[in-house]
Specification:
This protein has eleven helices and 13 strands. By secondary structure, it is of the alpha/beta class. The chain folds into two domains: 16-256, Aspartate Aminotransferase, domain 2; 259-379, Aspartate Aminotransferase, domain 1, CATH 3.90.1150.
């Protein structure tokens, strides 16, 4: 953890193999986007989540952008996306000049609310109106979303389902039609992020997973500047410099080896917070989502109102404890303000009252107790 008593929100937890594998890259001179660790990371990641193919990308955003290209998103095509999410979920829609349709949250899980989606798709079907091209489903803050009704609706109406699992690696379903399945593996395409604050990190990076061999082949082609094999630099379409480097992949391989331990650490941190904060007046703890197990990427609570939330951010910062609000809804952003919306105002309420607490995998019990005591000193009456 950080020095000088500072408790950060979420920082990497790197083991000894991270050093070993990166040094191996330096010693063998495989430091760019070609090298054995890239292939190994893709192969081992696909095996972990349970998909046929995985394509390493320079970022989670790059993976989402490639997903938009794979489904041939055209200007004006609509994509359903939660309004309460990190902006990277929606930006790739605009990269391809698509139209985001912003969906409200459900109060239980904070994920997008299936009900207004199902109502709107049925309305369009009755009217003979054009359906959205895709649904970008986000597993927010590490909590698996309620997929079953949405999968059925997407199948029925011919809508591509893309899972943004950037925050939820390791989350899975324990009941229902997807029992035993990992998040990111149920839609046609799943995307993950390995940013520095994620459960596992490559410093920056992402992964696109799919069971579709044609999608995987084209994804790898697009991420390598759409260059065709051979000595000549011949490119058959517009591609991108989106491949992960061998050094970053080396970190990913090492982190993937640690993933079971990291998930266990996150679960213990969540359990400690849950037990300690349950009695605090005016605090709402994250509810367990039936039939699923969260990755507990960011442990977040709700407090009474936005004013109190903002005071807590300032007060805890003075004690060298980093807490932060959850995402600002997309419909408040200038580039998304005119997008069509489904649902009411649950996302606004969650955003105004939501507070994410320190939950690095390396957070000690003593450090966590400091956070808990700081909250009690300001919230207990």
């Amino acid at each position: 953890m950080s020095e000088d008593g500072f408790i950060s929100l979420a920082e990497p937890f790197l083991g000894e193999n991270a050093r070993r594998y990166v040094l191996d890259c330096l010693e063998t001179n495989f430091v760019s986007s070609v090298g054995p660790y890239v292939d190994r990371f893709e192969r081992e990641f696909a095996a972990y989540v349970g998909t046929a193919h995985a394509v390493a990308c320079a970022s989670g955003t790059a993976a989402l952008h490639i997903a938009m290209r794979l489904i041939d998103l055209a200007p004006g095509d609509e994509v359903l996306v939660p309004t309460l999410t990190f902006i990277a979920s929606a930006n790739p829609i605009l990269y391809e000049r698509g139209t985001p349709v912003l969906v409200d949250s459900e109060a239980r899980s904070w994920n997008l609310d299936p009900e207004p989606i199902l109502t709107e798709l049925s309305r369009r079907a009755r009217a003979g109106a054009r359906q959205p091209k895709a649904l970008m489903l986000v597993h927010l803050l590490g909590r698996p979303a309620d997929l079953a009704p949405l999968v059925a609706a997407c199948d029925h109406h011919g809508i591509h389902l893309i899972e943004d699992a950037a925050e939820a690696l390791g989350g899975h379903y324990t009941a229902g039609p997807f029992i035993g399945r990992q998040v990111g593996t149920i839609g046609r395409i799943g995307c993950f992020s390995f940013n520095g604050n994620k459960l596992i990190t490559t410093g920056g990076g992402g992964m696109l997973v799919t069971d579709d061999a044609a999608f995987a082949k084209r994804a790898k082609h697009l991420t390598t500047q759409a260059r065709l094999p051979g000595a000549a630099y011949w490119h058959d379409e517009v591609g991108y410099n989106y491949r992960l480097t061998n050094m970053a992949a080396a970190l990913g391989v090492a982190q993937l080896e640690q993933l079971p331990d990291l998930l266990a650490r996150k679960r213990l941190i969540a359990e400690r917070y849950g037990a300690a904060l349950a009695a605090l007046p005016g605090v709402t703890l994250p509810a367990a989502v039936p039939g699923s197990t969260a990755s507990h990427w960011l442990y977040s609570i709700l407090v009474a109102d936005q004013g109190l939330r903002d005071k807590l951010v300032t007060a805890l910062a003075a004690e060298r404890i980093q807490v932060r609000p959850i995402w600002t809804p997309l419909h408040r952003m200038p580039m998304y303000a005119d997008c069509p919306r489904l649902g009411q105002d649950t996302a606004d309420d969650l955003a105004d009252r939501g507070l994410s607490l320190p939950c690095s995998a390396g957070l000690t019990a003593e450090q966590q107790q400091r956070v808990i005591q700081a909250l009690y000193s300001r919230l207990a009456h």
